[in-house]
Design brief:
elongated, 2 helices, alpha+beta, 47% helix
């Protein structure tokens, strides 16, 4: 059994890569693990004044967390639809 690690940020999930994973599974059963991370634009961390405002970063991080959670649910749904089983750690 092959082990496949699917890694991406929460906003840029590759459907082509997931399709490739599905084709791999059709040839031989695989163990698929998905890792999703926040895609924070670090340019906003550069202060534009002497007194940086943390509010934009906090808002961005919350938005990114929500996006990653939605991506994880979509990934789980796709895996369940294709393979009818999923294990959460």
């Amino acid at each position: 059994m092959k082990k496949v690690l699917f890694i991406c940020d929460g906003r840029n999930v590759s459907n082509a890569a997931f399709g490739f994973i599905k084709s791999l599974n059709e040839e031989e059963k695989i163990l698929l693990t998905g890792i999703f991370y926040l895609s924070v634009d670090f340019r906003i961390l550069i202060p534009s004044s002497i007194y940086p405002d943390p509010e934009p970063l906090a808002t961005l991080v919350e938005d990114e967390k929500e996006q990653v959670e939605n991506t994880v649910h979509s990934f789980e749904r796709d895996c369940t639809k294709k393979w009818n089983r999923i294990q959460n750690p």
